[in-house]
Structures are given as C-alpha cells and as structure tokens.
Amino acid sequence: MGIRQDVERLADTMHEIAQWSRSHPNYKKFSRGFVKLPPVFLVDDEKHGSGRENLIAMLRVLADYEEGAEDGNYPRLQELPERYNEYGGKPLLTGRDMRRVHNWIQQLSFGVRAAVLEDEIKGGNTGSSIAERVYGRLYEDCHRRSFVTYAPDNKYEYKPLKNADREAKLRWIAQEVEQRRSMRRGRVAAYGARPTEQEWERFGLMGQPVRTACTQLQADLDELVKLASTLDNLGRYSEADEIDEKISRISAELNLWDAVGT
Question: I want to staple 145 with a disulfide (CB 3.0 to 4.6 A). Which of 6, 15, 37, 66 is the partner?
C-alpha cells in the first residue's frame, strides 16, 4: 500500500505524537523511543516556512525513495535534496545536505511506523490485526523499506535492519503495539522495538559479511552434493559417503545460523 496517499494525515499524526511524546514522563529516559521531529518539521517561522508543509515534502521524498516515484524510478540518495526542494520543502537544500537528508530518512522511517500504528488504532483495529495491517501498509509491497529502530549501541542514532524478513518485522511490530498500550497506561515504555543482539547480528548491517559467507557456503554445498552423487553413480561409495558426512556437518551449522533470532 505504501504511504504516498496518506502523507498529509500521517504528517498530522506525527505532529500529534511528537507533541505528546515531549510531555511523557519517560521522555528523557527513553527519548530515542519516542517520535522526535527536527524543528524544521515542527516550527513555523520565516526561515523554514511551515513545519507541517516541510514534513509533508519530506514524507513525499521518503515515499519516492523507498516505494518508487510516480514515474516508476527510484531516486538516488544524492538526488533527494533537490527532490525535497521540488516538493516545496524549506530551507532549500543542496548536494552538501545529503547527510542531513539521510538522517531525516532514518528518523522519519521510525516516526512513520508509529504514526501508522496510531492510525490503525484510531481506525478501531485491535489485537494481532494491528501488527498485520501496519506490516501490510509499510512493508508488504515495499521491499526497499528497512525496519528502522533506535540503535542498541548509540543513544543518538537510529539504524536499519535491512535484511529482516516478514516474521521478524511482524514480531517487532507486535512488540511495539504492546509497548504503545503500556505507554497509554502510564507505564515505562517507548515506541521502538528492541531487537535482540542476535537479531541485530542477523538482520542488521553488521551481519552482512556473515550472510555473504553463508551464501557462498551454500553454493559450495550444492557443488559437493553433485560431486557425491557422481561418485555414487561411479561406484566410489566410500568417497561419496565421506563427502556426505561433511555435507551433514556443514548443513547443521548453516541451520543453526538460520535459527538465530527466530
């Protein structure tokens, strides 16, 4: 489904959440877990114009970047400052603002999920259906959209879990639904899901080298299976059995890795 058709409503919801978050008694202690918007998206002044309109412009940029623009193309990161300008965002950005835009993308990706969650709750949905609907709106048809939450090792950063699968995302969204219920009851909680250390290793950027190695290892296993079959057909049974034993040991290690974080 995506967010393109809902950017104005989501912008209003994000404004509401950001204002509510600042007044929450746990805001300072769990500040990363609440929706915080930069002043450019909150404040109305002569330099920045309308904070709401700037937020809408950046949400349109986010939709183009993650869901594809209306012409079917996916803009590159270096093209996003100019696209923000084209959507009427202020202040005007240049190519030197790519890092700022990248940070905005991470921050808004986190905030959008909270806004969609609130949107579903306002729509009267309850229980596990909320997690399913949030997943459907944000991730079902948008494979470029990462699951962004606050980093476990830096209190100032949000980080993506780029390689998370459907099961993991649903599990984290369900966690956020429960945390949201706790917040409204005044308990200690925040919006962001809290993946385990194993999940960060498996689905986060730090796990990429291991995933690459596993992919290569799986390809090598496939070749060993073919070799064992050839040896078996040639009557060289002891050699084929020896390869089969090696395949079993390596496969067990791969299965153990696949089970991490599930």
Answer: 66
